[in-house]
Write a structure and sequence with these properties.
Blueprint: H1 2-18, H2 22-38, H3 40-47, H4 53-63, H5 69-80, H6 87-101, E1 104-111, H7 117-131, E2 134-141, E3 149-153, E4 156-159, H8 162-175
Parallel strand pairs: 1-2
Antiparallel strand pairs: 1-3, 3-4
Helix pairs in contact: 1-2, 1-6, 2-6, 4-5
Amino acid sequence: MEEIAQVYARSLFQVAREQDKLDVVRDELGQVSEILEENHDMRLFFFSPYFSTEEKREGLRSTIQGADPVTMNLLDVLVENHRLPVVPRIRREYERLWRDANDLLPVTVTSAVELDDAVVARIGEEIGRQTGRKVELTRTVDPSIVGGFIVRVGNSILDSSIKNRLENLRKQIVRA
């Protein structure tokens, strides 16, 4: 399933880039994905084998109006090939491609308490300076880490939380 989503996402991304519609398609794909994830009746209708391709196509046209032709063409192809359930995966892969094209680096800072805006901004600026990319900064609060913070940069994690330090200490004691 993941490979299928990647193929569709790359194709969609290429067409959207050629037509200078990367942002429009990204927004519309996100909206369609959210609707399918949140609305049980929509999922039931569009994912069910009991409804014909033509019924689903009609349902798609009546539900989604005013969407860009690039987005509608993708949805038509997905309906035709019975692949509509992969829309959320296509969205994730398209998002990754979009971030790469815009030179954005997702960074998440997790702390036990709410950090000062200036501290978080400084962390983001330093990561941006070191990587040469624009940082897309998200912050979360997780009291279970006790103290310190965890920084996730793309797929890399820097864990300087007290919870992690205590776990490492426990492992050392067990080994000794």
